[in-house]
């Protein structure tokens, strides 16, 4: 069986096969990868514990699949094209050969600094090629990477480092994003005050911002490289890993206050990201593929690094932001590097669309053959704009639905092979068995129905555990509905059997494609000394998809409410990061609670949406009068 599906008829046939004979199907897919030793058993599983093992007995290293196996044929092919934040700075190209050399070199740096198989390494770097090198070097020696997005605060870094007991942190002096400079090392320094497990910090030079370097703990990336060079740049053969050895941890928000460390393992994740990448995008040998995500999120892990590189693709990474120096930057990059496949988020599309067509006009986008979106539902207007202005009506758009926990795409069009409909993720990829259930876990069969989206059979890229707390994994994903993986998403299956994701059904917000738990934001707001209690809900936001709306009870009446709002925002930035700052803060004297003390979020959501015509039954509230007060306050806030 070829890895790429080429026609709709083939898709239907293979899909059927993958359901009837899943183990045979996945074994055939896995044959397309390089194994030091093949598996004894394709799959062992139960969703009760859960216990999920793919390709047991197999031995491999994912970096041999991403690098070594390509070098003979594709050694001079660009693996990574890096476009800097500042368009006047030179871009960089790393061929497969060069990337392998650099990964081996940095693997030796890690070893020289005492890092061994199984150690956890926290990576907090800007979007520079060294981030890819650091990630792959960890994977090469079997260290488990935990990449933290550059927008997270010192407190968030400390929580993640402590949860995983990281021994090493890899960071940079600073990072560029548009006109801003982010003082990464200084943020790490603040974090490390709370982290006992960290023995070493490797600091890359990027902005050359002054930084404090602590003797015995902090070393420069460049100096460490020089040491390896004076050792004669010895090769660093890849560590042989077991199929289910941990590859990485990536933290994500849920409905509780504490982010979870989603764990992915070597073999299944490798097979799944490679298979989904090549299929959904129908990657062709000379195409340049550009994913605008940050490597700090799962999209960057799976579809800037592992998926594309395991398929020998050219992956373009961008350090900056889409609207600087102006809203034409992405189109300049497409033109400059002759990008064929562009994969971005609806929030970026909406903001560039809002900036005006003048930024697209005159740009040569003729190289584009395929487009993709990810992270949140895309509205029809943005879909058509993307299709017409960027794809010129000729490039299929793959609306890829997936999650940090799924490792790769589950429901997505296959470009040019399966149909597309604006706003729909369409059909499951072969190997994926979605089902819709009602509140009680009863399957909702047939078409033209909506329900909670679950998956009833394992796939290789799925979450194995939440780091250090397996019970939490079980409770969150496998206990809501018996024998099913619960996604947390609501979903419609239309008359044609096409899937459309309608959004989260739990207390998780999706702000600009970033997952943020309301409880997490509430905890952060409540840290502010003047706050007694808060309730956070999402509301529709024209660019971000969802905005964050906070109802706050403050301990004293402030004459300058705006200043208090800024104080609260500052607190949230400190505790979580600027990405979690509320867009709106409304001060209230009470919250709508039931007699048992539960906040009626349904009412707050309606008020935040500006739809107060029908708030439903409010008679069970402890103090129904508070609702009118909140309604009035909301109208005032809207102006
Ligand atoms: O609600 C879904 C939404 O993003 C959630 C997963 O977020 P995260 O783990 O951060 O991963 C984002 C990148 C994969 C999902 O539960 N989501 C993701 N993709 C789509 C989507 N909603 C609608 N359409 C999509 N294509």
UniProtKB/TrEMBL annotation:
Residue stretches making up the AMP-dependent synthetase/ligase domain: 68-458
One of the record's GO molecular function terms: AMP binding
Residues spanning the signal sequence: none
Keyword ATP-binding listed: yes
KW Nucleotide-binding (keyword) present: yes
Family designation: Belongs to the ATP-dependent AMP-binding enzyme family.
Protein name: Acetate--CoA ligase
